[in-house]
UniProtKB/TrEMBL annotation:
<dbReference type="InterPro" id="IPR028357">
    <property type="entry name" value="UDPglc_DH_bac"/>
</dbReference>
<protein>
    <recommendedName>
        <fullName>UDP-glucose 6-dehydrogenase</fullName>
        <ecNumber>1.1.1.22</ecNumber>
    </recommendedName>
</protein>
<dbReference type="GO" id="GO:0003979">
    <property type="term" value="F:UDP-glucose 6-dehydrogenase activity"/>
</dbReference>
<feature type="binding site">
    <location>
        <position position="34"/>
    </location>
    <ligand>
        <name>NAD(+)</name>
    </ligand>
</feature>
<feature type="active site" description="Nucleophile">
    <location>
        <position position="253"/>
    </location>
</feature>
<dbReference type="InterPro" id="IPR036220">
    <property type="entry name" value="UDP-Glc/GDP-Man_DH_C_sf"/>
</dbReference>
<dbReference type="Pfam" id="PF00984">
    <property type="entry name" value="UDPG_MGDP_dh"/>
</dbReference>
<feature type="binding site">
    <location>
        <position position="314"/>
    </location>
    <ligand>
        <name>NAD(+)</name>
    </ligand>
</feature>
<dbReference type="InterPro" id="IPR008927">
    <property type="entry name" value="6-PGluconate_DH-like_C_sf"/>
</dbReference>
<feature type="binding site">
    <location>
        <position position="250"/>
    </location>
    <ligand>
        <name>substrate</name>
    </ligand>
</feature>
<comment type="similarity">
    <text>Belongs to the UDP-glucose/GDP-mannose dehydrogenase family.</text>
</comment>
<feature type="binding site">
    <location>
        <position position="306"/>
    </location>
    <ligand>
        <name>substrate</name>
    </ligand>
</feature>
<feature type="binding site">
    <location>
        <begin position="142"/>
        <end position="145"/>
    </location>
    <ligand>
        <name>substrate</name>
    </ligand>
</feature>
<dbReference type="GO" id="GO:0051287">
    <property type="term" value="F:NAD binding"/>
</dbReference>
<feature type="domain" description="UDP-glucose/GDP-mannose dehydrogenase C-terminal">
    <location>
        <begin position="300"/>
        <end position="387"/>
    </location>
</feature>
<comment type="pathway">
    <text>Nucleotide-sugar biosynthesis; UDP-alpha-D-glucuronate biosynthesis; UDP-alpha-D-glucuronate from UDP-alpha-D-glucose: step 1/1.</text>
</comment>
<feature type="binding site">
    <location>
        <position position="83"/>
    </location>
    <ligand>
        <name>NAD(+)</name>
    </ligand>
</feature>
């Protein structure tokens, strides 16, 4: 079986590797560097399992920038291209997904198209109506950056937004590639599958926001936030997980997915979804005020990535803090080994860790790291549990 996978980001590459264990996979990306990396069995993303599988496993996987080559003879097309949130339109920019669907329809008109990119509720039905093709299926991803392949090998569930033969065959491919057994598989209508994705991520954002607001309260009143979180988490209905305070939820998924879900509520009464979006902004304001109150001349920004094990800077909460304190006239210096530029947001990038520490009166870090142990007295963080979640 041949599968064409469009997009070599976290979703696309992890799916390509998973499927290439038992099928012939040709991945497509507009970035020639990513294509070259995959063909050389190097990982273009920060993911330990992807790196290991590319180096050690016998995968039937190749990559190209030529869509027609990938689509020739394909039994499935998987779309995993970016859908960034566009504040001007108050919704996802689905241009890249629509472009792949159009290309697939021209080169492989009868081949089922599995959309893995996150899309607005109602997108799949709209595409079916526009193209006159019922073989467009939405199947959401529930992956963590840095652990994308792990989460595909050990999926919490597989959701397929269709109930036809192609949907069942694709679900079989996903379960075949997984290590976990007896994975729950749910077949729904496409619109329900789209809603599952957005509501799942918004619930996670709500949980992050809740414990961040708990921490804001504790910090304001001089209380032991860790003790309160521990006591709350001992209730089995709450649980001791996904409760480590941070500067705010960030990354590629939660900020944009919560805003898209809120946009989908335009004709539906709600309070909670808007509050989740607003809470993240309020948390960043609060954290920035805590830093500004210490009157530092230069603030060191330790890592721009959203979390440990990620190379993604997109919408990381620490960037929001940085912008807020710079707006008050406080200088910043950035330590980010993954950044190639000499400046970030008009602030110098310092690649020498010792020099970075010397230049910083105060160092902000969304998560603690052994790199900062010797200057712990300078570090401002709300990482109480020393884990990402």
């Amino acid at each position: 079986m041949k599968i064409a996978v469009f997009g070599l980001g976290y979703v696309g590459l992890s799916n390509a590797v998973l499927l290439a264990q038992h099928s012939s996979v040709v991945a497509v990306d507009i970035d020639a560097g990513r294509v070259a990396d995959v063909n050389a069995r190097r990982s273009p993303i920060e993911d330990a399992d992807v790196l290991r599988y590319l180096a050690e496993r016998d995968l039937d996987l190749s990559a190209t920038t030529d869509a027609a080559t990938a689509l020739s003879g394909a039994d499935f097309v998987v779309v995993a291209t970016p859908t960034n949130y566009d504040p001007r339109t108050n919704g996802f920019d689905t241009t890249s997904v629509e472009g792949v669907i159009d290309t697939a329809r021209r080169h492989a008109p009868a081949t089922p198209i599995i959309v893995k990119s996150t899309v607005p509720v109602g997108f799949t039905l709209r595409m079916r109506q526009q193209t006159g093709f019922g073989g467009i299926v939405f199947s959401p991803e529930f992956l963590r950056e840095g652990m994308a392949l792990h989460d595909n090998l050990h999926p919490s569930r597989i959701v397929i937004g269709d109930k036809g033969d192609a949907a069942h065959r694709f679900a079989d491919l996903l379960t075949q590639g997984a290590i976990a057994e007896n994975v729950p598989v749910l077949f729904t209508e496409p619109t329900e599958a789209e809603a599952i994705k957005l509501f799942s991520n918004t619930f996670l954002a709500m949980r992050v926001a809740y414990f961040n607001e708990l921490d804001s309260y504790a910090l304001t009143h001089g209380l032991d936030s860790r003790a309160i979180i521990r006591g709350v988490g001992l209730d089995p209905r709450v649980g001791d997980y996904y409760n480590n305070p941070s500067f705010g939820y960030g990354g590629y998924c939660l900020p944009k997915d919560t805003k898209q879900l809120l946009a989908n509520y335009s004709a539906v009464p709600q309070n909670l979804i808007a509050a989740i979006v607003d809470s993240n902004r309020t948390r960043k304001d609060f954290i920035a005020d805590q830093i500004i109150a210490q009157n530092p001349r230069t603030v060191g920004v330790y890592r721009l990535v959203m979390k440990e094990g990620s190379d993604n800077f997109r919408d990381s909460a620490i960037q929001g803090i940085m912008k807020r304190i710079k707006a008050k006239g406080i200088g910043c210096v950035v330590y980010e080994p993954a950044l190639k530029d000499e400046h970030f947001f008009h602030s110098p990038v310092e690649r020498d860790l010792a020099a970075f520490k010397d230049r910083s009166d105060l160092i902000i870090a969304n998560r603690r790291h052994d790199d900062l142990t010797d200057v712990a007295y300078k570090v401002f963080t709300r990482d109480l549990l020393q884990r990402d979640t």
